[in-house]
Specification:
Pfam families: DUF2938 (PF11158). Helices cover 69% and strands 0% of the residues. The chain has 170 residues and is mostly helical. The chain has one domain. The two termini are 15 Å apart.
Amino acid sequence: MNGSTDMLSTLAQGLALGAGATALMDLWLMGLRRAGVATLDFALLGRWAGHLPQGRWRHEAIAKARPVRGERALGWLVHYAVGLLFAALLLAWQGPAWLDAPRLAPALLLGLATVAAPLLLMQPAMGAGLAGRRKGPVGPQVLRSAVNHLVFGLGLYLSALAIQLLRAAA
């Protein structure tokens, strides 16, 4: 293979890695919702993203902000784009060769590190305060977010294993 083919292959595998990990996290979140645990409504993420072009980064309460046309679809798009970005960070950190011999620890560490995004960026921007402190006790929220993002990290690892199996079968 030449360099551009290798790069395209790594890009495609990186996309599959991020999409697979995000999908596993979504299955986890669906299970939590069915168990009665509140999770982020991606329409609110879309609402937040939809206000960005007007220069509105922070809201007092995103649920009370003006709705944005197509906010649910936009929220899902942003959610998966972030998952792809986090997968790219894993490959930038570990190198594309990680896909040849994926290890669980780096995937889980990256997953855990990504919990900083909702706690330090998204929750304050959406009006919930740092680590969601305006929504109630911080400890349980931080723990729930950490577990959700560890599931994402597990998804990175499992997706890499699936990519290996698909490459071996091809």
